[in-house]
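As a next step, the fold was encoded as tokens, giving this record:
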Amino acid sequence: MQEYEYVTKKEYSPVKRELERIIRKVQKIMETEEDISFYYDLIGSGKRHLITRLKKGNTGFDFDYNLVIETPTDFIWKAKEVKVGFIRAFNKALIGTKYKCAEDSTSAITIKVVDTQNSKIVHSCDFAIIYYISDNEDDGYKYIRNNKNGKYAFEIRKVSTHLNAKIDKIESYWNNGWNIIRDEYLTVKKSNSDVDKHSFVLFLEAVNNVYNQTLQDERNSRTSYGCFY
């Protein structure tokens, strides 16, 4: 079974800073050349400072960002053009960096720093291009998906509801609630067999697992300490 470890803040912080410099360059290029504005949001485990990598592996560690465009009423029928425009912008922004050319994956744009001498990825980042369905972000969003048949489309993705509230519940119920989440996240990553599943999805699974365990323990406690007459 695969073993994962946490990456120290000292190691991942410079990478995060460089990624966000690259994103800001992409913002300027997209505004100038494509007339598209967006903001960026670090998501999932990276946002929670839970950066992991496979012990003795060759895939390094990764980040996930959402690139959030304005509600694209005029983009609906040209998802491919939007994705290709972002790829062009990234390739321009990557000039002078250690990152390879931007790759078009199914649900994101991926960039990597590769150690060719040792045939391994040092670190990588996935950028999903999205827009929110409504002003209420809990309603979910649409992201550009490459269906691998030459067709691109904006497809809906639901968000995990009440994520922060679940984490607050866990931390208020258990003295070491955050450490329980950290441990569960490593367990979920270890048991995952879907190579296409992103880290932020695994993080949501870990939180939901611990949250459900918390509710079960709470119910058991109420049963054990019922009313006495």
The beta strands are 4-6, 38-42, 52-54, 61-69, 103-104, 109-115, 120-132, 141-146, 152-157. The mean pLDDT is 89.
